């Protein structure tokens, strides 16, 4: 789910097969961040294994770039034991956490979604740590984004554009939560919109909104099925923005990793099709999706897919082909 990613343009070749990270461990909706204080990589995931926010670490990323590297689950640490006051206290359902270091204030900001108290919908929250990437995190008492009349909001992801010196948060308006049935509750016609919303935020804190939000992409039912979700922004060396996202429903074989490109962060965005999935190359995975790419990771990317334990995290490396297309690449 980060920051500004500069990529070399790679010749097309044999695509690398994504690797396992934590073995058969349920670690859904992963995001990855480099911590400058410890020089380690940290991965964060949806609630599970008794914690509201799961966390693991590795000395390098992708971990297969180093013979001594591996991912280690920190199962005794819950980064968000007490979410914001607006979150349902008996069933918080914390999803898709994403953490970023804010150098101006030397703090860490976490974006997450939690179930809204008294509602079936989720909203986006923010929590801040002033000491360590492992917390303690203090949640804000009010949501960052909460369009509950449209089904709420989930899958928030931060992005820092070093070229323009601007910081953003992108998230999904969860219209599928209002659906009347079918896959992910929104497959039956006509279905509800599930747009991605881009909000600029103050560069010094990572959460104060700057100006109005912008809708950058929405589902096309014939292409995407009931929804699009899990937006993740990066930027190439040539200045092109890349938006990774998933389409269809995570519990169907059509779930995938797709991407779109744009010359301006607010669009127009051009859909480039599927990157990982059964229509192109699924590498033997069932329902791969939720891709998150990062700065400084040699084109590193994580995503989740079905496994015996639930949804396991996998990693790969990626680059840009001769024609500007995103390709998976050998590490």
Automatic annotation (TrEMBL):
Superkingdom of the source?
Eukaryota
Residues spanning the signal sequence: 1-16
By sequence similarity, the record places it as follows: Belongs to the glycosyl hydrolase 43 family.
Q: Enumerate the Pfam families for this protein.
A: Glyco_hydro_43 (PF04616)
Native organism is Podospora pseudocomata
Recorded protein name is Endo-1,5-alpha-L-arabinanase A
Transmembrane helix found in the keyword field? no
Question: So, what pathway does this thing act in?
Answer: Glycan metabolism; L-arabinan degradation
What InterPro entries does the database record attribute to this sequence? GH43_arabinanases, Glyco_hydro_43, Glyco_hydro_beta-prop_sf
Keywords attached to this Swiss-Prot or TrEMBL record, sorted alphabetically, are:
Glycosidase, Hydrolase, Signal
**Gene3D superfamilies found in the cross-reference section:** Glycosyl hydrolase domain, family 43
